[in-house]
Each structure stands twice: as structure tokens, then as C-alpha cells.
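Students often ask why inverse folding is considered easier than folding. One informal answer: many sequences map to the same fold, so there is more than one right answer. In these notes we will look at a single instance of the problem. The structure comes first.
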């Protein structure tokens, strides 16, 4: 099978720390690709995978997928081909760009609804939205002290509060600020940027909480970003 190259756009964490979920944009087709099975942290470090990495390998569609997670592909012979440029990375993000979360997931949401019902027909589980820096805020979770959640207002003017952040590098960096009592400095940095791209992903379904729940897979600021956010220190 021919090889394909993707620009990594999603680099997300699991609570147990034993696996990392990545996704990216095919540099030829613009298709979103999510390698499965997920990768071990050591493998990500070996391949030097970060957001913006050009990852090459054989990615094949997985037959008989159900639900919105149609981006899943098998993978073999992965290797990194360095980092893309800022313009290339923005292109990769914009390949999945929608004006609002409702448009991206093709649904009319109820007030405060942050999940997609199991019976909603949908062919994607990751989208990009572009928002003004003033329309995003990091805050300690009022319901789970010590954890950080994200508030945002999307392009339609709809508010989403307390979205979980699964962006591995960003969350780790934000927790460093939180533990130092300085989360506001990270908010201030974001407010000074020109634009913010947010990758919104959907969780897998699990019995205790039926549905596909929204999570923040990636938070990317332009033109500047904190270099500490994107590093190979995964654990």
C-alpha cells in the first residue's frame, strides 16, 4: 500500500497516561486521519510526534466503523518527517474548519448540551473552530477543584462552559500555571493573540455516560504560542 503523510493536529491525553491519541490532516487530500490503535508515550517520543509534526506511514481505512469516529485508520511503518511550517499547520487546521460547533456536528443542541446522542447520524468526530481570543477562558473546574476546564463562545455566539481539555501539552502547561496560582497569565497571553483555533473532538461512548461528549483536543494561538506547551516531555 502507498504511504501517506499527515500533519499532526491533535495530540491528546488519557487519564491513565498509558496511551496517546493523535490525529492529523492528510497533506494531499485534506482528510482527517486518526491512527488506531493509539500510540504509547514512548513511541511518540521515539517518533518525536508533536502538533505540527509531519508523520508518514501506511494508513488504511478500518472497515465497518460505527458512530462518528470515521477517521480511524490502521497504521504501520510510521516515521516522522520533521515539522511543518506555521502556514502549513494553519492549513491543516482549516481543512476541518466550521463556523460553529453545531454546524460541524450537524446538530441543533439544547441549552448547555455538550454531547452528541448515540442515534445522531454523523460522519466525523473532530472539527476545528476559529474564535476570537476574547471568547475563550481557562478556569478551575468549580465542580472538581484542581482541574482546569475551558469556556468558549463559538462563531454563532453560543456559549460552551466547562469543556474538558484533552490537549496533552496545553493542559500540562496550564496545570503548571494553576499550581503556581498564575492561571490568569496564560489567559492574558491568549488574549494578546490575533486568533485561536480550537480542535473539538468527541469521546467514545461508554456505558456510564451514554453519548459522544465534546472535549478540547487542541488549543492553538496565532501568531505566537508558548514553546513550553509543545515539548516531548509526555509524562
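Output (designed amino acids):
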Amino acid at each position: 500500500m502507498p504511504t501517506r503523510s499527515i500533519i499532526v493536529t491533535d495530540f491528546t491525553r488519557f487519564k491513565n497516561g498509558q496511551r496517546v491519541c493523535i490525529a492529523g490532516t492528510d497533506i494531499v487530500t485534506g482528510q482527517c486521519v486518526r491512527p488506531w490503535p493509539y500510540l504509547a508515550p514512548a513511541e511518540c517520543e521515539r517518533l518525536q510526534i508533536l502538533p505540527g509534526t509531519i508523520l508518514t506511514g501506511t494508513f488504511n481505512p478500518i472497515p465497518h466503523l460505527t458512530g462518528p469516529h470515521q477517521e480511524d485508520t490502521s497504521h504501520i511503518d510510521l516515521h516522522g518527517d520533521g515539522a511543518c511550517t506555521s502556514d502549513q499547520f494553519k492549513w491543516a487546521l482549516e481543512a476541518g474548519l466550521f463556523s460553529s460547533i453545531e454546524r460541524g456536528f450537524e446538530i441543533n443542541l439544547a441549552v448547555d448540551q455538550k454531547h452528541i446522542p448515540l442515534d445522531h447520524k454523523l460522519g466525523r468526530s473532530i472539527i476545528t473552530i476559529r474564535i476570537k481570543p476574547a471568547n475563550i477562558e481557562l478556569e478551575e473546574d468549580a465542580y472538581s477543584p484542581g482541574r482546569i476546564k475551558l469556556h468558549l463562545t463559538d462563531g454563532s455566539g453560543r456559549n460552551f462552559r466547562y469543556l474538558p481539555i484533552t490537549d496533552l501539552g496545553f493542559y500540562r502547561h496550564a496545570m503548571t500555571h494553576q499550581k503556581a496560582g498564575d492561571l490568569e497569565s496564560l489567559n492574558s497571553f491568549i488574549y494578546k493573540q490575533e486568533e485561536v483555533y480550537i480542535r473539538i473532538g468527541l469521546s467514545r461512548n461508554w456505558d456510564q455516560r451514554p453519548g459522544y461528549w465534546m472535549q478540547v483536543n487542541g488549543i492553538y494561538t496565532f501568531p505566537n504560542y508558548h514553546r513550553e506547551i509543545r515539548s516531548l516531555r509526555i509524562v
